[in-house]
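Record 1 of the preview.
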Amino acid sequence: MSRKILITGASVAGNTAAWWLGRAGFDVTVVERTPAFRDGGQNIDVRGPGREVLRRMGLEQAALDHGTGEEGTVWIDAEGRPAASFPAGDAAGDGPTAEMEILRGDLARLLYEPARDRATYRFGDHVAGVVEDDRGACVTFAGGAVERYDAVIVAEGVGSATRERSFAGENRPRWMDLTIAYFTIPRTPDDDRMWRWYNATGGRSISLRPDRHGTTRAMLSVQGPAGGEQDWDVGRQKAWLRERFVDAGWQASRVLDGMEATHDFYFDVLRQVRMPRWSMGRVVLTGDAAWCATPIAGYGTTLAVTGAYVLAGELARTDDVRAAFAAYERAMRPMVEDAQGVPKIAPRLMNPHSATGIRVLHAALSVASLPAVRGIAATFSGGGSTAPDLSRYDGAPPVATDAAPPAGLSPAIALGIVGTVLAVSAVVGRRNAPDPAHPGIRRWYRGLDKPGVTPPDAVFGAVWPVLETGLAVGGYRLLRRPPGPARDAAVGLWLANGAMIGGWTALFFRRKRLGASAVASGAMVATSAAYVATAAKVDRPAAAAGVPLTLWLGFATLLATRIWRDNPAPRA
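->
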């Protein structure tokens, strides 16, 4: 069995791998560029299989005990008033704030403390080169030492220099059009235990999150294409942020002042790491160095812990390093591809550029935060998982994890997209509704000759919220499913139906095009039926939630056709 392993990077993935490999009897060395163990960092969470790995390490309760104490997420307006609130623990723990919310540095230290009893740590050094031969990998360190290992595990960050040296030109980063800065600022008496998220025009946002160290974790983000800002020096990055946020409102001044004095400023232009392979010979990538999904996915730490565990497990199962690396990639690739399936439009939707866009986002999130809607989301949030079978490792029997890992978009982003689509449809519908706010439309509609089966206005008012709830449930489930041809087609049909519902009201009520609206109704029957059929291939509950809409549209088409026939001339 291969016995001597080098791990480069002493953060979450590296420490997890060191713990498990040391436990399996390997001779493990961890090299870390920083001169000492690095504490600090912002809020992260661990869900599903990652939490199961911590449980097997005996660290689950310790991670919970070292949590940030965050009690939920709230979107606020410029006056600090809540626009939408998602308490922690709602929706079966599937909301923006997970049960296990912890600072990156705190989790890394929880992993490091027991791992250093099973591995040798070398701080203030890094890999300068790797040359392979029949006997292993010969590693040259920046400090001058040269040593031979059976395998080299690269567990560095998104900008891993060792990855770029060993896999030169292979990374095809996917830029996410979002720049984020993280840092710690002094806590004030007004800071509570909620994650407060404030949107300003221009695609800017400010977040304040609690910790258990008597300070507050701040985040500034700007939505827009990358311009090389990640390569600037810290002084230029801070100046850029100050210029961008000087007029942002809310607590921008406090945050910017805190930024100047902070000791842990971190700045990054978000991009996913897209590697065609994770191993070459005796060198293998894991964690962000292999697959960074970005914080937008909300699953990076879970991937890091799970991936390191699977890699260590596969190395312990065979003497063949290359076979172990191949098995590790087969096990983890589906889970990683799911987590990376965040559409690039998601940051734009969650960081609107206009005041109107912010109002629409807040309205959408307000609807999504209603207890009834959260309850529906919890009921229908299950689905298939592409996480690896952890029972293959450590001789443990299959264990049901505490929560199914997300597949596709993160809960917050999925809720935001669903809410935005429904909010836009509702705004368009209200503009054209035959209610007292539109007396001209109301008089015209009441003057039409309508068949006796036409429901009264109260029935329409009761039916549409039910149908839209079904659409919301279906859309949420589909957005949380793994990307693929059937899922993507179903999402496209879901979006088309949402747009057509709003468009039909403009065609019928505002433009008074009876014939065209009847034809449009028939088209909507076809598209909604196609949506149900396509969604059924991906997620049966999502398809079932769309059936009432199809049935109602069939009835509405018959009604619209009769009205068209009985009213041959448009009435002013």
